Each structure stands twice: as C-alpha cells, then as structure tokens.
Amino acid sequence: MRAALAIACMIWAGACLAQETGFYIGAGVGNSSYREACADFNRLAGQADAFGCTSSEDTAQKAFAGWRLHQYLALEVSYIDFGEAKGSGTVAGAPVTATTKVKAAGLSALGILPLSERVSIYGRLGMLEVKTRTQIEGGMAAVEDDDETELHVGIGALFNLARDWGVRLEYERLNDTKIDLISIGVQYRF
Prior knowledge:
The chain has three helices and eight strands, in the order H-H-E-H-E-E-E-E-E-E-E. It is elongated. The protein has helices at residues 2-11, 13-19, 37-45; strands at residues 22-34, 56-70, 73-91, 94-114, 119-138, 142-160, 165-174, 179-189. The chain is mainly beta. Strand 3 (73-91) and strand 4 (94-114) form a beta hairpin. Strands 1-2-3-4-5-6-7-8 form an eight-stranded antiparallel barrel. Helix 1 crosses helix 2.
C-alpha cells in the first residue's frame, strides 16, 4: 500500500504536497476589533453614556500548534493575546479611562480544502478559554475579571511557500466577547 502511495506521489507530486500530514507550529500578528468594548465600559461604570466610542482596535498576537490528521482535517491548539481596548469618558463629571484586555487559549478542528498544490482554504470550529479584565480608573475605580469558555470560529487560507513553510491569512471571531481578528502568520510543518 505504501509503495503504491509513493508511486502515486511521484506521478502527482503537486497533489501529494497538499495531502501531507504531520505536526506543525506557527505564529501570527493581526488586528483585533472589540465590537462591544465601550458598551462594556458603560456597563461597568453604571452610566449608559459615560464612554462615547463605538469600537476599539489593537494589535493581536497568536501562537499555534497542530496536527494535520488527513488532507482535509487538522486539530490545532492556539493561544491568542487580543491586545487592549481603551476608552476615555466622564462619570459624574469626572474624567475616567477604561481598558479591556483579552487573552484566550483553546482547541479547534480545521476543515481543509486543498485548491492546488500550494493553496488551501480552511474553516475553524473550536472552543477557547477566554480571560477578560476590564478596568476603569480616574474619577471612579472599578475592575471586572471574567473567565468563560466560548465558541471560536474562523476561515482562512494557507499558501505553501515550500514543503515545510507556509503563510496563513485568517479571520476569526469570538461570539460572546464580540471580538473579530484578522491576522497573517507563518507556519512550519515538520
């Protein structure tokens, strides 16, 4: 059976590049968008209009490791630091500043569709343990820490530069925390 697979791989080398299985690691950087940060700041301040912003963005970093079980399926663990959302406002006439920091780690399954020997697209479905810290300082002080398990979804594309190296472009979303992440990263396959 292995001999037949090896002969088939020699004949269709491009198809075999996309079908390789094994362990991989990688890292990425991107832009996180906190869709509800200011609403969270207002809720923590106890005043509906304390913070007038509608969204906040920051630089995010991620690290991941996975195992490609099959040409169409991989399991992946990831750690994501979504950066920090910031806002300023007024509570009871006093100036205040607020920050939210979100970090997450978890496990996802990736459904992979090879389009060619160099390009694959994938969908992500998994769970992340999300740690959020929201803090207000200035005219008032308040801190809120939250830990929860959330659904982690995304779509992406992998561009193989060589047998071992690839570049990933990905969009991910946390539904409960309401954060969107667009990132670019590198992947090394062993």
